[in-house]
Amino acid sequence: MTHKQLIQVLQEKKPSFSAVIPKGTIDPERFFRMALVAATKQPTLAECEIKSVVLALMDAAALGLDPSGLLGQAAIVPFFDSKKGVHRAQLIIGYRGYIALAMKDGLVIDIQAHCVYKDDHFVIEYGTNPHLEHVPNYSVPQEDDNIIGAYAVAWLKTGRVHFHFVPRARIEQIKARVKPSGLSPWITDFPEMCKKTAIRALMKLMYIPIESATGKAVAMEESFEYSEEPINIVDETPALPVEPERKTDRLAKHLKKRQKEEEVPQEEIPPPADEDIPLEDVPTVQAKPGPGLFGGEGK
């Protein structure tokens, strides 16, 4: 499929996107413009299964997130499915997307996420008296290789504060499961993906309702990371337009039809009837007595 054909499909699916966008999230017209930005930003999406592209955008619409990647909420990322031998598209949610979902669901009144670098002053304690202390050292360049982990802090309506730290080794394990390449945010925006990983881990520890938007987002992403078969937020598969027939397919059908028309069926010659065979041509056989059917002497 060409990039032009992909844009045409998105135009046809515009009403479907608008139908699943929750009220009070993102304007349908703005969402569609951001969907076109995502398709333009990632030209390789045209190489993906069109069904996966539409479903990824439908999931972004159902969550009310901007899929362009410009605001850090979400992005549509192509990847190669080695099991099926095809390219597929997947919705990847950014840390700002998780913050927006948690705030919209009313789970928290505020939430933050930060990366910890090796030259920072960082102290964390769990137990009956949890404690977290982080003083960044901005005099040293904050490079990706120096990240030792990331943490997220959430302030609940009850006044309680929850936090969770994810070490670099655990982040690398999650990254390896996704097998990122090209323009994947794991390659282009590694610090943001570290923060997103910390927020998602914190959401799981807070026992968020699975029916909430945040819970659905966590379930969708983890199903993709562990099985490469994501649980889409939109259950129904949208009807897709029939892809235009290629010239080679039309030529093959034309040649096959012409070959059938040129075939001349051969007339079958019926076998001669019994009365057409002269009696004198039938050979006479003289039989000799032999053993009977049940072992006796033949008569």
How would you describe this protein?
- 39% of the residues lie in helices and 17% in strands.
- With 299 residues, it is an alpha+beta fold.
- Among the domains are: 1-94 and 229-242, no CATH class; 108-207, no CATH class.
- The strands form three sheets. Strands 3-6-7 form a three-stranded antiparallel sheet. Strands 1-2 form a two-stranded antiparallel sheet. Strands 4-5 form a two-stranded antiparallel sheet.
- A hairpin with a 5-residue loop joins strand 6 (147-155) and strand 7 (161-167).
- Mean pLDDT is 83; it is low at 290-299.
Secondary structure layout:
Blueprint: H1 3-12, H2 14-20, H3 28-41, H4 50-63, E1 74-81, E2 86-93, H5 95-104, E3 110-117, E4 121-125, E5 131-135, E6 147-155, E7 161-167, H6 168-178, H7 185-188, H8 190-205, H9 213-227, H10 247-262
Antiparallel strand pairs: 1-2, 3-6, 4-5, 6-7
Radius of gyration: 34 Å
Task: Using the alpha-carbon principal axes, give the shape.
Answer: elongated
Order of helices and strands: HHHHEEHEEEEEHHHHH
**Which structural category do the helix and sheet elements fall into?**
alpha+beta
Show unreliable segments: 290-299
> Mean of residue pLDDT?
83
User: How much of the polypeptide forms β-strand, as a percent range?
Assistant: 15-25%
Helix content: 25-40%
End-to-end separation in angstroms reads: 84 Å
Number of helices: 10
Please count the beta strands (DSSP E, at least 2 residues each). Answer: 7
- Main pleated-sheet profile: 3 strands, antiparallel
Strand order in the largest sheet: 3-6-7
